[in-house]
């Protein structure tokens, strides 16, 4: 029989070999050029297009080539410009009046096409309007104010030519040892520093050595500046102040790929990865500029100054399918970059890039596959050169659908109605992108549209530092008295400290032009004595901005507000005004003296938000004429007019900022840093607009052949059918071995799709591996015979690995014997908490402590079931429910922790039971039986208190509360264009490995990953490879979510106790549900199980609890483009691929998604996303019109008879940093405003870096302050770079919220760890949980805040960093019945 099997195999083998050979034999038709057989074979890859015959189709379409040529012809014969055409600095569409555009419909004749021209003649700026239909100039104005138009490329070339011909320059350069043939220039704008600079257009010319590198910017010839009058073409000033400073060497400056050929990468290579859409795109681009996707429609065009303009933005109403106006126009209005060096050769470096150079004019063609993903569509820009002739900037904008493996919304529910609910939806978005290369920097500007109505605007920075030459090669050579303008980033190179501010013009038209700006302030309210166990809560106070000054907003962490643009005349069925809100992200504020000349010109950055009435002449935040302006026509000036803005056509201006203290990792090219803000619907929709979206299915996604060529696909298909026919027949032939189950031959056939695994024989391989099933069973056996627990095992609340001492783990190497395996057990016996350590090798209890302080261990599922059983059997509850009109068969109850509110609650474990109606659908959370609370003593199994205070409040109806997807036949029709399948594909498989079940290795990273019953997911022994030698270096010993605090802002009887500590009370791991493949995690994910313990001490498996996947979202890792300098154009970009680990916990109504994301540049991003259900309160109100202004509301009306109660979320992370070793130091790197001495510099102020070492814990209790900015470094003083900088990591906060509750309010006493955003403590293995080991009903006597008050030394110690991220949540209709995901994050970033 064995011989027969070999014969069968041989037959099949030769058949396959024959068919494979046949596939290479030429067919009757000649071979075609090979193409990628994927969606990239269609319109996605942009072909070079002839724009000469383009015609406009929309009132806002940019001028065509024909129209530009017509304007040039008209101007060539225009009398005032004879005999020759002046220099053209701007030639763009003179847009029709807004009312005319809003009234225009497709099919209508276009309004008159006009061009706006800005020209320079005899040193004067001319502004003209040219009517293309009439063929003549219809308006001509000469500008007499300060400032000049955007520079032309010709201006830059003139300045360089004049400078290079200057004799003194050439002599100085030669004296510096630089060959004139290697001399390279840049032309920064000079700013404005007094009347003596007015009346002439100046350019500064700086010089570099290009010898040995394309990256000449890293080789400055320090101190040489030639100031050129570009109109007179003459040098007006020559400065040569840096003769003693050497020109930095070219070593390691080349960033081009071919410049790296001699350096083998010191990391595991990343396999190809792409975003694939097997059925093609879901969006269309009509008439060249109208983009339609899902529920969005907008006009998109390139602009020579703004770069990219998004206009006429509309979103479809999910109820009617009708498009509704959101925004008339949005774009980056100005980009302000002040450098912080007052020296002679640097003081003027404060740029307004949009107004000085033009973001569109500075744009370069995007690099396919690197700047934009494979599935991108490209759009060209048609611009005008100084001679009035048109030119095309190809591939300037890209449009693509993004799928990054993220979640749009989700909720999981434990079995409540006889089945388990696990619903989630993948997040797919549409991105428009452009990139401008302005001098050293590259700015990547994204507009991202989500199906839930949110628009995210992101600015990402990369490129080169503007560096300063120095005599120093090592920090040891720098005296403490010497003032440095920035850190040493390479030998003889200083990275000068600077800021970036991008101000956006957002002409919001929410449902119409007349809108109102409302500040929704969260204000702390103190309760009256005796009215509530709570001392404080937050209430919402709405403040309508009447005039512009009311809307000049400085963001304040401790005075939080939401910023709404509402339409008072468009109200929802509940009476809430339709609106959008601006949601700030991480930000930075300008700290310069308001009278400093750069800040006078950049005064639009004095606030983060401004609101002005619409004025078509007020589009550019720095003014129409920015170059050398003195700041007399800026947004700040307009706003001081204090015009009315209530119920008007208004424009919102938002400024995002970056402080940049450079570091060695920024040399020679900078990894991307990003910031963003959101425009988010608030009561714009009647409910969550994306409920009806179907989950993703494996059947929709591409197979593993998507990377084959077209010809190979034909041959493969032929082979497939022949083989299929043969094997079908062969399968009926008897064989000696039984048939095996057929499998799909695709990437999903490997480890990617997680099979259910038998863990019964698992063994540990690493000292931090979790307990195995065998070990858990062994613990149970030991405890069953442990005398203090006889005759029966008490309830087990925690059973986990009792980890070895840290020193022992750090000293362990693969192949060494494992340290002794121990288990920590927390059990409850006779109302007391017992903490035991069990030696598994010795088979006995080695430590036993009885806890006598406050608090109890995590409640078990059995505890909650006991509480429910007691409540359900309570007669008064049943009677009250029936009186409310709810059938007992529909009664659903939930169990909540009671918090701690005084000594009278101590000495017994209590659970609060709340009740709901589950009639008709499982989303009972939206149907509260308001005011009924049953307090249960779960140990005595008795009701100790029954409260029924809401008898007059109806139970909300079940209409529109069901969030499940039951199939297309059961749902109302979606009022949006469907999104076609999309996935992340890796045709060559994963780039990471999971060894021994827990060791993850990817690219330059290695770490230990495990599930934990309390923390959910724990990352340990994190190491990153050194790129110079490939050796792994320690970054972090352990990181995890230590506590999650959720206080609700309602002091009423039925709500005051609702302030939860989800990790310590319920356990994030214990609350985790299996992740939903393709919806919670992408197709290329690998899954990991959790092994936990029930209260009877028996192990159970939580399958698919963690997923690991490589993320590619079409983002950029780093990029730089350079205009031709050495006979070629430099365009280098790299796509960003990262590794993500994820788990999701469903704690009651909320779902928390925890991500750790590892980047190849050494950065770790830690992110938390929130979804799930609101915790709602019943009310008698069905419409806001019924609510009196005197009535106290604890949140907005989100549905009929339903209030979404205001609340907070705070997640505190434990980060045991071990940067290159255990002994680290915490540094506050403060940016401090310094005033210059009179007469020393034209600058009045600048920022300098002040380093402050935290000696003790109190030195490291940090409250974040926007106007007192700092970086927060964990450094290793004993490990220094070749430049002498200490190795370090810094924590980079993201968007955040701070706790505002009274510190003595009982919930805040327990959660005092949220009093600061950052704490640092010395390592102590007993201090892992920010709320204490035993949190349930604790009174806050054993928290991080208590430990930190000991004020122990932390300098050069093994230290732990604690970071708290926060969310304020003022609910809205879009959060009903399930919430779209909201996220926040922070970064751990390498920083010497």
From TrEMBL:
Residues bearing PTM 2',4',5'-topaquinone: 441
Region span, Disordered: 249-278
Residue spans of biased composition, Basic and acidic residues class: 251-264
A Pfam short name: Cu_amine_oxid
A GO molecular-function annotation: copper ion binding
Modification after translation (UniProt): Topaquinone (TPQ) is generated by copper-dependent autoxidation of a specific tyrosyl residue.
Catalytic residues, chain numbering: 353, 441
Coiled coil regions, renumbered to chain: none
Record text on cofactor binding: Contains 1 topaquinone per subunit.
The keyword Magnesium is annotated on this UniProt entry: no
Domain Copper amine oxidase N3-terminal: 150-248, 857-956
GO BP term (any one): amine metabolic process
Protein EC: 1.4.3.-
Protein name, per record: Amine oxidase
